Amino acid sequence: xxxxxxxxxxxxxxxxxxxxxxxxxxxxxxxxxxxxxxxxxxxxxxxxxxxxxxxxxxxxxxxxxxxxxxxxxxxxxxxxxxxxxxxxxxxxxxxxxxxxxxxxxxxxxxxxxxxxxxxxxxxxxxxxxxxxxxxxxxxxxxxxxxxxxxxxxxxxxxxxxxxxxxxxxxxxxxxxxxxxxxxxxxxxxxxxxxxxxxxxxxxxxxxxxxxxxxxxxxxxxxxxxxxxxxxxxxxxxxxxxxxxxxxxxxxxxxxxxxxxxxxxxxxxxxxxxxxxxxxxxxxxxxxxxxxxxxxxxxxxxxxxxxxxxxxxxxxxxxxxxxxxxxxxxxxxxxxxxxxxxxxxxxxxxxxxxxxxxxxxxxxxxxxx
Length: 368
Prior knowledge:
The protein has helices spanning 6-21, 38-48, 57-62, 78-87, 102-116, 132-142, 174-177, 181-197, 317-334, 342-360, and strands spanning 32-34, 52-54, 68-71, 91-95, 122-125, 149-157, 201-209, 214-217, 220-223, 229-236, 241-247, 256-263, 266-271, 277-282, 293-296, 366-367. The chain is of the alpha/beta class. The strands form 4 sheets. It has a 9-stranded mixed beta sheet. A 3-stranded parallel beta sheet has the order 3-4-5, sandwiched between helices. It has a two-stranded parallel ribbon with strand order 1-2. The longest helix has 19 residues, at 342-360. It is globular.
């Protein structure tokens, strides 16, 4: 694994636990953790269960005892590490968004397609696909329970940047992060919307804003070079329309990733802050008993849940990453297509680029 901060911690938890709960074809051995600072990397490796640490990701991807490389670094290094690892014959799990630009993502997809011909797999880490309630939502849509899809509403609301005195971070530098709220959390709702509906976003009209344009840093004040919030309207490939909002300035909202889908026969709604629940309305039910009903998604017949606890014993954020890695290992073992693939990540990247382009040009409609 390359990188050991927030994402490194949750990925490590997943690697440690996956074989204990899921019948996967491989039992992971956590060989080496990579980081820029030798001391911090060594401490992280010991704390999170890795055998050793390294400060050279190039050495990691060339090692004979490494079969898979997990990339948990900022976006500016995703392409270089992933392509090198794939060319070295290593399977790759890469955090989202896939890259900082469409051009980088295209090169990563090309490398992934070449590697796939040699039996080498790659996945982009959109972990919210692995929330059991969202996986159930996708199942209901695929079964036709919502009928013809008409509306999609997706928001991702956080507040960790609302204080103007919050110090500068790499997530606020375009050269490292690619974009702000748009790519950081907007990418999640773009992927979730496409995943649940089974449709792709074909056009957008976007608006972005940066509320605090300078932040305290070691050298004084530093310019913020990314968006603080992003909003856009979108059209879907089969006729549905959608609205999207991503912000890190919604005071009181910690991780409100929400998705609602309305169709001709029914509706569903999800909020990650109540991640074990899915709300479903059957529009064909008699009005006397109709309305949204709360489904507690903890039954063994629900996606992923059967590997865990008895009904009613809820899951948490960290479990989504365990599900992700279980699916990746299973695909490698069976030879099935890995999802979400790098191609899926590229589709999200194209939407991000179209939103940015639209926002810079008076919110003009852009094809994706």
